[in-house]
């Protein structure tokens, strides 16, 4: 490594992706400085428990914090601050205190933030679940006696929060979504129907196929922002119904934190576009990691996509760190394009969803591989007759059943071949 | 190398089994079993297993 070992890599974002990036830079042989910048006051922590164990009061923060690898002990952590701008042509990043950090290499790991509903009504009593502070705040409200909860959005987080709320003893939980079935986007109709049935059997109510037009408040006014709208008392649906609510959870997707990269002539539509080695904007000294990266997966069709699964920060960090260190140390050579096998899971009530591959690509050809949608079931997703994903819904042994297809999915040729 | 799994945290996801099949396995009931002191040659795959554990329940002690 000539000269570059004294340089600096700045990692923008101190969540799981930032941590894994820092560790993987060391694993890839980078001996120069690594500075990780992140706006939360905490060291990186594990987020899946936020909508489940943390909300249920079963997991203290100490149990969520990642234990950084020993090799990354000399990484500099700048917490409670964030990167607000970057000049890629000058290789500098600007922090929110106005200071400037010059870099040799930059890792974009700023992740996502929850999308918020833009409709009239008060803000007080409305929650999202992305950070530890979010989950703790929501828990305080869900544990009030007799609380009525409306969850807007029937995706992963919405379904998990609804299940956790029922588990906490909340008797009125209603999930609203403009789509006709919960999680129908990632799962397709057959499993989404089975999921709906399970939730309803456990006391979750649904208002499906209808959007939200506004929020009612106890402040009497029509103001946006809570100032004169008071606290939320109900959710107004597009069909005129009003669902009474003391607490609203908005789980309507997320927005990529990329505004700080504006002005660098990058493609920032839905995350930051990367090449097949997670490099950004044709600059080999800039890579992206985690769910903010919109990357092509050589395993499938070459269309760049963002992937919000838990496994992605680790997978992207490994590949991106190797690519970045190879460039900075002048050892770039032939390298294999990034081709992760996506996997996701979701725990709701006492059952687990477990997925391998990319079911979303094969939603038009769904076949039951084992079991029965009313019980434990294993479902296969196909493109041109080729298996591209499996999802299990049920108990442990069903999830293990999905794992049996993992090797087969790994061996499949790319969809483009 | 010593491997410790916090079995109170473990939820039998099995991701460690894919990463380090010589060290971790699931029994017939789907519960995790593992070798607590694997050969040092397996360090890379055990580190990978610790990384991919959704519960972050795997610790490596030297």
Describe the structure.
The complex is a heterodimer of chains A (417) and B (62). Chain A is α/β, with parallel strands linked by helices and 417 residues long. Helices cover 20% and strands 29% of the residues of chain A. A 6-stranded mixed β-sheet of chain A has the order 3-2-1-7-20-19, with helices on one face. A 5-stranded parallel β-sheet of chain A has the order 9-16-10-11-12, covered by helices on one side. Chain A has a 5-stranded antiparallel β-sheet with strand order 22-23-26-25-24, sandwiched between helices. Chain A is globular. The two termini of chain A are 38 Å apart. Chain B has helices at 15-19, 43-52, and strands at 2-5, 24-26, 32-34, 58-61. In chain B, strand 2 and strand 3 form a beta hairpin. The N and C termini of chain B lie close together (5 Å). The model of chain B has no long low-confidence stretch (mean pLDDT 93). The chains are: A alpha/beta (417), B alpha+beta (62). The A-B interface holds A 20, 46, 48, 63, 66-67, 69, 310-311, 314, 343, 345, 347, 354, 396-397, 399-400, 403, 406 and B 9, 11-15, 17-18, 26, 29-30, 47, 51-52, 54-56, 59.
| Main β-sheet, spatial strand arrangement of chain B | 1-4
Strand proportion of chain B, as a percent range, falls in 15-25%
What helical percentage do the residues of chain B reach?
Answer: 10-25%
Give the neighbour order of strands across the main sheet of chain A: 3-2-1-7-20-19
* Arithmetic mean pLDDT of chain B: 93
**Oligomeric description of these chains:** heterodimer
Q: How many strand units of chain B?
A: 4
Q: Helix count of chain A, per DSSP? A: 8
Largest sheet of chain B: 2 strands, antiparallel
Distance between the ends of chain A: 38 Å
């Amino acid at each position: 490594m000539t000269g570059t070992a004294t340089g600096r890599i700045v990692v923008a974002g101190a969540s799981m992706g930032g941590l894994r990036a820092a560790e993987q830079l060391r694993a890839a042989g980078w001996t120069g400085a690594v500075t990780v910048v992140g706006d939360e006051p905490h060291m990186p922590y594990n987020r899946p428990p936020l909508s489940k164990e943390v909300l249920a009061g079963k997991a203290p923060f100490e149990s969520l914090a990642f234990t950084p690898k020993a090799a990354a002990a000399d990484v500099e952590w700048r917490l409670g601050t964030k990167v607000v701008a970057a000049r890629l042509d000058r290789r500098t990043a600007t922090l929110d205190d106005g200071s400037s950090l010059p870099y040799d290499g930059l890792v974009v790991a700023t992740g996502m933030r929850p999308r918020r509903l833009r409709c009239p009504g008060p803000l007080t009593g409305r929650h999202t679940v992305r950070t530890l502070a979010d989950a703790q705040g929501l828990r305080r409200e869900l544990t009030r006696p007799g609380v009525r909860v409306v969850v807007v959005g029937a995706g992963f987080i919405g379904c998990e929060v609804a299940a956790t709320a029922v588990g906490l003893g909340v008797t009125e939980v209603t999930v609203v979504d403009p789509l006709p079935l919960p999680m129908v986007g990632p799962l397709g109709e057959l499993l989404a129907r089975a999921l709906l049935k399970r939730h309803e059997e456990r006391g979750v109510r649904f208002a499906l196929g209808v959007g939200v037009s506004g929020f009612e408040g106890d402040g009497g006014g029509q103001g946006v922002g809570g100032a004169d709208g008071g606290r939320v008392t109900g959710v107004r649906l597009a069909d005129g119904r009003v669902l009474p609510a003391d607490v609203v959870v908005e789980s309507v997707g997320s927005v990529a934190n990329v505004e700080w990269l504006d002005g660098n002539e990058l493609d920032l539509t839905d995350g930051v576009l990367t090449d097949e080695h997670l490099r950004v904007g044709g600059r080999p000294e800039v890579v992206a990691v985690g769910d903010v990266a919109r990357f092509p997966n050589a395993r499938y069709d070459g269309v760049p996509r963002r992937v919000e699964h838990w496994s992605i920060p680790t997978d992207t960090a490994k590949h991106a760190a190797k690519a970045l260190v190879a460039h900075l140390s002048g050892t770039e050579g032939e390298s294999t394009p990034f081709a992760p096998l996506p996997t996701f899971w979701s725990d709701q009530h006492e059952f687990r969803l477990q997925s391998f591959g990319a079911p979303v690509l094969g939603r038009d050809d769904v076949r039951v591989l084992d079991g029965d949608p009313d019980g434990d079931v294993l479902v296969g997703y196909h493109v041109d007759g080729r298996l591209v994903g499996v999802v299990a819904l049920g108990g442990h042994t069903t999830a293990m059943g999905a794992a049996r297809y993992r090797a087969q999915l790994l061996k499949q040729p790319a969809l483009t071949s | 190398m010593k491997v410790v799994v916090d079995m109170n945290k473990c939820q039998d996801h099995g991701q460690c089994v894919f990463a380090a099949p010589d060290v971790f396995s699931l029994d017939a009931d789907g519960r995790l079993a593992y070798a607590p002191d694997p050969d040092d040659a397996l360090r890379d795959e055990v580190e990978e297993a610790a990384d991919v554990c959704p519960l972050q329940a795997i610790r490596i002690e030297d």
